[in-house]
Amino acid sequence: MTADPAPAPQAPGADGPAADPAPRRTPDAAGPRLVLGSASPRRLALLASIGVVPDAVIPADIDETPKKDEEPRPYALRLAREKAKAVAAGLGGDDAVLAADTVVAAGRRILGKPQDEAEAYGFLSLLSGRRHRVITGVALRRGGREWTRRVETQVRFKRLSDAEISAYLRSGEWRGKAGGYAIQGIGAGFVPAINGSYTNVVGLPLVEVANLLQGAGVPVTWEGSPA
């Protein structure tokens, strides 16, 4: 796993770092209202596992089409930032908005959520017997400031037979999953090894997200339920 260094807080749209540091939560502070800019049940469950329950869930409505020649790493972070910005635009200034985007990268090719079974078949055939990367961009906005992370995990797939792919497609688990598989489900049987964050592959790198939330004053109790 590789995690990009944390940038200093930035004013939205600014290229350089802002002067003020991230807010720090005091032990008796309740923290800001937390809004999750995603309807993903996996992200909700992962947050709950560290004792974080969003006050609201508002999925972002943005165009997720990759730009011409856009590579997976900048694409994932761009979408996370755009999601957070879109949700924050309709909220109070002190609300904390957490958004993320996870992509599977086969070389420079971005594998998002397959649109249909045929595309899912193509994704799984491409990943079969190869290593690929799972990249999650994370963005947190509060009070006109933004913090970001980008985390990458290497995943190795075993060689899949046509019968295995067909059976997996019949399960329906591929729907709504970047790359067309779920490592936390039946798809775990395709993965002999990973290098990096497991929760990143599920959809949210918890170590990095917890650090972001705590730095922005959002309580993380670590008293949650298993994801």
TrEMBL record:
Q: Which InterPro entries match?
A: ITPase-like_fam (IPR029001), Maf-like (IPR003697)
Protein's GO biological process: nucleotide metabolic process
Question: Per its UniProt record, what CDD domains does this chain match?
Answer: Maf (cd00555)
Q: Name one GO molecular function term.
A: dTTP diphosphatase activity
| Pfam families (alphabetical) | Maf (PF02545)
For bias type Low complexity, the affected ranges are 11-21
Active site residues according to the UniProt entry: D101
Domain of life per record: Bacteria
List UniProt keywords, sorted A-Z: Cytoplasm, Hydrolase, Nucleotide metabolism
Q: What is its main location?
A: cytoplasm
Give the compositionally biased regions (Pro residues): 1-10
Residues of the region (Disordered) are 1-35
**Site description Important for substrate specificity, residues in chain:** R42, T102, Q184
The reaction(s) catalysed by this protein are:
UTP + H2O = UMP + diphosphate + H(+); dTTP + H2O = dTMP + diphosphate + H(+)
Q: Where in or outside the cell is it found?
A: Cytoplasm
Q: What is its EC number?
A: 3.6.1.9
Instruction: Tell me yes or no: is Hydrolase among this UniProt entry's keywords.
Output: yes
Which coenzyme or cofactor does it need? a divalent metal cation
Family annotation (Gene3D superfamilies): 3.90.950.10
Instruction: Please give an example of a GO cellular component term from this record.
Output: cytoplasm
Record-stated family: Belongs to the Maf family. YhdE subfamily.
| Entries under PANTHER family matching the protein | BIFUNCTIONAL DTTP/UTP PYROPHOSPHATASE/METHYLTRANSFERASE PROTEIN-RELATED (PTHR43213), BIFUNCTIONAL DTTP_UTP PYROPHOSPHATASE_METHYLTRANSFERASE PROTEIN-RELATED (PTHR43213:SF5)
What is the role of the protein in this entry?
A: Nucleoside triphosphate pyrophosphatase that hydrolyzes dTTP and UTP. May have a dual role in cell division arrest and in preventing the incorporation of modified nucleotides into cellular nucleic acids.
Protein name (database record): dTTP/UTP pyrophosphatase
